[in-house]
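Researcher: Dear colleague, please comment on this protein.
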Amino acid sequence: MKVFLTLEFVLKFLKFAIVGTLGFFLDFGVTYFCKEILKIQKYISNSLGFITAVISNYFLNRIWTFQSHNPELGAEFVKFIVISLVGLCLNNLIVYLCHGKWNVNFYLAKVIAVLVVTFWNFCGSLFYAFAIV
């Protein structure tokens, strides 16, 4: 429990949140472009936006947030992708429930999904992908 009360932990979460915010705008930009401009189905557009942000977030988090020097870049990336794929499933499930079942605006549903999945991704990155704790 001590690990959650340190300044280092809080700073890592804040950096992760900043990277995530950049990823959020990238995700929304790609989703909007695919859905509204290219007329790709909304859940495929959602997935494309999410995947684009995940790739960007991996490299930014590796370099800045977690300052990983792991020479096993491929293995680390695969771990990050696994966490992100679970996050993608959660993201799509939340968007589906909020938008498809409860008639919440599609983009508001995405905001809700991103907020929930952020916590999953941070914990998975901290304890598994970058395993610095």
Summary: The chain has four helices and no strands. The helical segments are 7-37, 42-65, 73-101, 106-129. The two ends are 12 Å apart (CA to CA). The mean pLDDT is 92.
